Amino acid sequence: MTATAWQLRRAEPTASDLEQVDAWWRAANYLSVGQIYLLDNPLLREPLEREHLKPRLLGHWGTTPGLTFVQAHLNRTIRERRQRTLFVTGPGHGGPGVVAGAYLEGVYSERYPDVSLDEQGMQRLFRQFSFPGGIPSHAAPETPGSINEGGELGYSLAHAYGAAFDDPDLLVACVIGDGEAETGPLAASWHSNKLLNPAADGAVLPILHLNGWKIANPTLLARIPEEELVALLRGYGHEPLVVEVGADGEPALDAHARFAAVLDDALDRIATIKADASTGRLTARPAWPMIVLRSPKGWTGPREVDGSRVEGTWRSHQVPLSGVRDDDAHRGLLAEWLRSYRPGELFDERGAPVPLVASHAPEGELRMGAIPVANGGEVREPLRLTDFRDRAVEVDAASRGADEAEATAILGAWLAEVIRDNPETFRIFGPDETASNRLAPNVYASTDRQWNAETLPGDEHLAPTGRVMEVLSEHLCQGWLEGYLLTGRHGLCNTYEAFAHIVDSMLGQHAKWLESAARVPWREPISSLNFLLSSHVWRQDHNGFSHQDPGFIDVALNKSPEVVRVYLPFDANTLLSTADHCLRSTGYVNVVVAGKQPAPQWLSMAEAAEHCERGLGVLPWAGTETADRAPDAVLAAAGDVPTLEALAAASLLRERVPELSLRVVNVVDLTRLQSEGQHPHGLPDADFDAIFTRDRPVVFAYHGYPWLIHRLTYKRAVHDDLHVRGYVERGTTTTPFDMVLLNDLDRYRLAMDVIERVPGLAESRADVLEEWADARARARAHTREHGVDIPEVADWLWQGGGPAE
């Protein structure tokens, strides 16, 4: 079936059309209940017995019949309008219904041939659900057509808009649960319509599903007056269409007829908006339609159990009949419930859907379970990337660190080329920080910020078709990016390091999706989720303690090593090399931390590319070891400011303790510190020992919380000789050097650490230790008196090469 976007309805649905909708809906509900309860006897061809039932009843019924109801009606409109439609479900607990829909479409059996469209396949469908070795209870990566698992609620609408950007012929039908609607991320997501371009982007149809209850509490939006609800949604910029179905005694076909009319009205309104936008008749931001669907929680399930009302209450949320294995009455109610769908009318003797049901599904890729963008790797095309080396900062080996540059500004110039060369498949997302993090003005040479709300004189870089997406919600920015990636495109999320924590759990949800998707053979890899964290802990000159938190790295590295990567480039050239690698990669969460302030530049582009390829390595020009003498100590660093302080410490040691044999190491890829069996990037022990030694003191200057380095290296031979300096929750609004002083990460403290840990050196060079202790005190006093760093620090320059140069 060929797609033809944005058609108006041809005719009102007939009685036979609605009967077909109802038959499909009953079949989907039957399959959903079967997944929760049945181990055998899938078509109830014999009396329901204890051995036919699962020993552990897992899953959620309450929201499921509402989801299958919407699916049934979308199938009708897709067939009639031939409209590409992606179905996004916020209530992840409705997983049985989404799986049932994919099965009735035939997509599930195509992806999993052993789950065939017959009685044996139906039994396998039922058995695998929430069962060891089977599939999860949510609409997870294993579910065809799903891009939103709904494990943690709140992300469905952001994902829906992310999917719609740059796909002008795509309709994204997004069901939002009324429990989900109470979350902060979802509340922010309503504002996405102010950034959607009606001509260049697809359309999102939000369907707010009010069934009245969460796990055990009523939902807020279901309990406020309708006038207030409608005013709220209109205030968000939507035109809400309200419909209530499933009242006691209402014939099913009447409910179908009323919802069909509302759905057709909504789709006609969208088609009109799209037509007006494409012809230039649309002169203002439209009020996009949305649907408010009220239906009973647990609709069509048991009305009453053990004397308590179930349908339409919180009691239907999970498993309405929990005692079916041991309670004959409950088992009888389950059999009655299943037979109420009249499965004999829906499935033939083989157990396959009868033609009335099977023909209700669209054909080919118009099936919601088969739409290619729901398996984004199938439609993903690699980015066209210019050679990042062409943007190199020139670094002369004879004068390393003499020139300064803003690393993220240099990156911005390269990203401007990425935007220019990939005008429909790459976007930058961030909470009002493209300029603050110095990606602008270079990025704005190629694009503007997308904006479809009001503009005023004096506004800069706002346009209906910009490639930068900004709103002050980290949840929304990441949600848009995830939806964009999951449907086959590419992007980058840039934010302040400290406030990346706002999406800690969102990172976890996406990482779990990637990990699970990698085990699904038919899921093709999607582009990596790339975080650029700047305005970091060590340079918060304007904001202070509240903005100082490097712990997002720790959160990321708690996730599966199969999907998480963390990079700490320490100058512009290493950042360019790292960014190129990340944008080319698939299937990962890449966390890149890089400073935005002017900073010394250390490596030529050739050196930077080689260093980043290794992930870590010795900086031979910085140390004093020679070919015929092993190092007495290793001074290591990860991060731009720690590397600056480590190099300054190395310079102090070269000058004041020339007899010391010192090795200097820099780490860009943090996961290289882990053992080979712990992470795919982990260095073999022999290679690690060749760099860090097995038994020499290692002083490690680290960007974040120091205990992370111990955690990553605890299996290494040198671990007992490893001493880490990092951020220890000492912060304020102060000078750059005072920040490192506060946390004992300064050059003097690092150099003292080396002396104190080399056997015998502390005793022989006590004078140097005292001198540097005094220097620390003098530096602290200078900032307190003058408000700036002491000249010997502020004006410090690297003085020339080591033995390798």
TrEMBL record:
EC number: 4.1.2.-
Cofactor(s) this protein cannot do without: thiamine diphosphate
A family per Pfam: XFP
Keywords from the named record: Lyase, Thiamine pyrophosphate
Domain Xylulose 5-phosphate/Fructose 6-phosphate phosphoketolase C-terminal: 596-798
Matches recorded under PANTHER family: PHOSPHOKETOLASE-RELATED
Domain Xylulose 5-phosphate/Fructose 6-phosphate phosphoketolase N-terminal: 16-378
Name of this chain's protein: Probable phosphoketolase
Source domain of life: Bacteria
An example Gene Ontology molecular-function term: aldehyde-lyase activity
